[in-house]
Amino acid sequence: MAIEMIASLDLGTADEIAALALAEAARAGVNICVAVVDRAGYPLVFKRQQGAPFHAIDIALDKAYTAVSFGFATGKWDKRLAEGSEMLRHGLMQRERFVSFGGGLPIKLGGARVGALGISGGSEAQDVAFGEAALAAWQEKQPL
Predict the structure, then answer these.
(1) For the chain, which domains are there?
(2) Are 47 and 74 in contact (CB under 8 A)?
(3) DSSP secondary structure string for all residues of 24-57
(4) pLDDT value of position 138
(5) For residue 144, what pLDDT is reported?
(6) pLDDT for the residue 89
(7) pLDDT at 80
(8) Element (H or E) spanning 118, and its range?
(9) What is the pLDDT of residue 142?
(10) Mind listing the pLDDT tens digit for each residue in 32-68?
């Protein structure tokens, strides 16, 4: 029997990444919801700025869940689905928590997927930008 050990974010790191995303959105004057999930897709941190749309709550959580599940940004699904079969497109789009638009980003450390970030509340481009900026700021703090 083999046991796989999987690296995952801890609560403190998840909170730090969420705070970085919230700061980016605040600078832009946009109210967002941010979710950070561990490697298994379970929420570690969820925060909603006052005034963020209520629907953004579940969307942020589902963006993070989709990104950690597949290991790439949710915004990349558009091209992948266009290249796939109609059955693939139909099947994935019917999945309850599947999100195929931008704002979900995997969190990697040393090349290993350790969690994901989901942001919702701004435009798709804003959600992506806030997430990318937060992850870049967090990565800069990591030892080489």
Answers:
(1) 11-140 (3.30.450.150)
(2) no
(3) HHHHHT---EEEEEETTS-EEEEEE-TT--THHH
(4) 96
(5) 67
(6) 73
(7) 80
(8) strand 112-120
(9) 87
(10) 999 999 999 999 999 999 999 999 999 999 999 999 9
Tokens, residue 73 = 């940004």
Q: How far is CA 55 from the centre of its chain?
A: 16
Q: Which residues pair with 57 in a beta bridge?
A: none
Q: Which two tokens stand for residue 98?
A: 């599947």
Amino acid occupying residue 37: V
Nearest to 115 by CA among 24, 1, 17, 3: 17
In the chain, which stretches have pLDDT less than 70?
Answer: 144
Instruction: Identify the three-state secondary structure at position 135.
Output: helix
Q: Could you give the maximum distance between any two Cα atoms of the chain, in Å? A: 53
Q: In terms of Cα–Cα distance, which of 104, 95, 96, 97 is closest to 33?
A: 104
103 touches 118 (CB < 8 A)? yes
Which amino acid type is present at position 43? P
Beta strands, E only, 58-135: 104-109, 112-120
**Structure tokens, 138:** 């967090």
What phi and psi, each to the nearest 5 degrees, are found at residue 28?
A: -90, -5
pTM for the model stands at: 0.92
